[in-house]
Amino acid sequence: MYYKSNSRNHCPSKINTYNVNARFIAPNPPCSFNPNSVYPTIDSTAYIGTFSSIIGDVTIQKNVFIASNVSIRADEGSPFYIGSDTNIQDGVILHGLANRSVKNNNKEYSIYIGKHVSCAHGCIIHGPCKIGNNVFIGFNAIVFNAIIGDDCYISTNALVTDGVIIGPNRFIPYGAIIDTQEKADRLIPVPKEKSEFAQEVLHVNAEFPCAYSLMFGSLKCKCGLACNSRTI
Amino acid sequence: MYYKSNSRNHCPSKINTYNVNARFIAPNPPCSFNPNSVYPTIDSTAYIGTFSSIIGDVTIQKNVFIASNVSIRADEGSPFYIGSDTNIQDGVILHGLANRSVKNNNKEYSIYIGKHVSCAHGCIIHGPCKIGNNVFIGFNAIVFNAIIGDDCYISTNALVTDGVIIGPNRFIPYGAIIDTQEKADRLIPVPKEKSEFAQEVLHVNAEFPCAYSLMFGSLKCKCGLACNSRTI
Amino acid sequence: MYYKSNSRNHCPSKINTYNVNARFIAPNPPCSFNPNSVYPTIDSTAYIGTFSSIIGDVTIQKNVFIASNVSIRADEGSPFYIGSDTNIQDGVILHGLANRSVKNNNKEYSIYIGKHVSCAHGCIIHGPCKIGNNVFIGFNAIVFNAIIGDDCYISTNALVTDGVIIGPNRFIPYGAIIDTQEKADRLIPVPKEKSEFAQEVLHVNAEFPCAYSLMFGSLKCKCGLACNSRTI
User: Fold this and answer.
1) Most buried of the four, A51, A72, A158, A200, by CB within 10 Å?
2) Strand B65-66 to strand B47-48: parallel, antiparallel, or no bridges (unpaired)?
3) Looking at the domain B24-216, which fold is it?
4) Which residue among A21, A29, A95 sits closest to B90, beta carbon to beta carbon?
């Protein structure tokens, strides 16, 4: 056994305390519903933050930023795809149901996330689901069993679920529960100030993958500053 | 001091980056309201996921699956009990108030969770509370100071609190706030499709403890595949 | 590259499993919007819990308790200040927008949190924001772009945002969305039982920093028990 479990009132001789930039990138364990063990495919320009884990058949494209305490776990629904220049903020969870999928270009995914997407702190993206390009997903929002069109803005605490399809450029207000297609069809276009906010978030996060890799990874830029176009 | 704290603009000589399957299983520190330091009791068939911590008098029964970034912290309210074949998904938090308890078979607990329970991603279970058998607790749902009967289904974002007692087989809709007994008493039975969904979740999670232990733990099955009945 | 990323179906020879009290305390990486890399300033009586990270210009005062899986990330908005005797529970996230600030005593902050504040499990505090003294912030509550007066009580799942200013001693109910000043101005005073609950939470958390440091840190009290006034 890898930990002591049978003795009560057992005080371990010494538990060491470390200051460490740890993450866990590993293949999924084989299961009856997902028998192939696949190691994640992570572009070398992406950054994986501290205490985050990436498990299984997950493709992470160029310049993706993944913050701290993120769990991306393709052990049940699989594969996952995360497009370039997308950011996944602290505490975000990606997981998917077995045997359920969405399509992108005739390939099946448990979770497909386009490029230039912001998944803000604490949101849950649960497959089957597809998120288009340039989508903003707010704090603690939940997307599960849904298709989200390009340029949508999902506000804080919203829930989008039960098979709804959200057209492009739709705005989902704070805490809204979009669980029928009728509700989905009545959503208004994204207000201009929300689009601008989403663009600012992307702009800021574009610098992070390189800046963090420079600081904590073993990859080094020659420029000595954060940049988006590394040549190494 | 175990970290440098007084110098600003201090760049540590080198912070190492590791790919590591780390978890923290430890006794609670003695406090005036909880003076006994107790090491968790974890069945050898349970799996504790990456970057999760289990602190204090926590009993974890057979084939429990605990995913990533989970905090189970029996340092204030104590003890906690987690029944067999229960799953605790990513980002879930278990904690309890001091000096408040629930009873199960005449024994007092801060948190008692039965068997075959699913605690979905991001939910918070805060003692005092008791969760019966076969309960499903949805994404980001919160149960605090409540008793949940067997076979209940608590949907995404629901809040159950303020001392309510939920009878068996009750269904709590998305985002519902059940904070009076009057509201609790008006809940409808669990719809058939929700019961079936909860069963599927249990079915899938039954394979994970062994599959993950095989892949990342030091316990090995002889079968070479995930199984629920290990003989080691 | 610091991890293998190009081979699919690659099974790493061995990923080690550790029982470890890890946290990550580090300077922010320099970026165009936040070019100075600053190491956190953490009082030696504070405790930083397992799998939590503190990045950048963050000042943490005396006897602050930070639980597990917390992310305090001053890489964009900066600096952050956390007053003495404040507790930050499991899964809490602190982050701030670039180029937006609040003032305290004529100094600008991305996030300013006073003393004797409780940030309960799963809440998100996003700058620009200022939290007064003796504030209680409930489970999964969100404060973003807001000023919260002293002695306020923000209940579970509430959202306070869009530039509102909450006067002192205001009570925000479960799940309330306070996104206009008009709503903010209609809030009632904090009920007595809620104030008392907030005081109990502070009382309990006052023991944790020392108790945890004794158990897991390298600092040792001479008294051998948890105490708030260490002389080392």
Assistant:
1) A51
2) parallel
3) UDP N-Acetylglucosamine Acyltransferase; domain 1 (2.160.10)
4) A95
B91/C91 CB distance under 8 A:
yes
pLDDT per position as a tens digit, B189-216:
999 999 999 999 999 999 999 999 998 8
C66: which chain A residues are within 8 Å (Cβ-Cβ)?
A: none
Residues A150 and A145: their CA atoms lie apart, in Å, by: 17
Instruction: Please name the chains neighbouring C, where neighbouring means 3+ C-beta pairs under 8 angstroms.
Output: A, B
Which residues of A fall within a CB distance of 8 Å from C77?
A: none
Residues A143 and A126 sit within 8 Å (Cβ to Cβ): yes
* DSSP designation for C13: S
Which chain A residues are Cβ-neighbours of C97 within 8 angstroms? 200
Amino acid at C24: F
For C125, list phi and psi in degrees, rounded to 5.
-115, 110
Least CB–CB distance from A21: residue in C7, C24, C75: C24
Residues of B with a catalytic annotation lie at: 76
Give the predicted TM-score (pTM) of the model: 0.92
| Local confidence band at A11 (pLDDT 50, 70, 90 cut-offs) | very low
Q: What is the DSSP letter of A100?
A: -
Domain spans of chain C, in order of start: 24-216
Prediction ipTM score: 0.91
Question: Nearest-CA distance from C187 to chain A in Å?
Answer: 19
**Interface test mutation site (partner B, options C19, C87, C201, max chain B beta carbons within 10 A):** C19
Is pLDDT of C224 > 80?
A: no
Q: In chain A, which residue's Cα lies nearest the Cα of B4?
A: A19
What residues form DSSP beta bridges with C21? A17
Nearest of A98, A215, A70 to residue B17 by alpha carbon? A215
Residues whose CB is less than 8 angstroms from the CB of residue B88 and which lie 6 or more positions away in sequence, other chains included? B64, B65, B66, B67, B70, B72, B82, B94, B119
- By annotation, the residues of C acting in catalysis are 76
Residues ≥6 apart with Cβ < 8 Å to B126: B93, B94, B95, B96, B97, B111, B142, B143, B144, B145, C121, C139
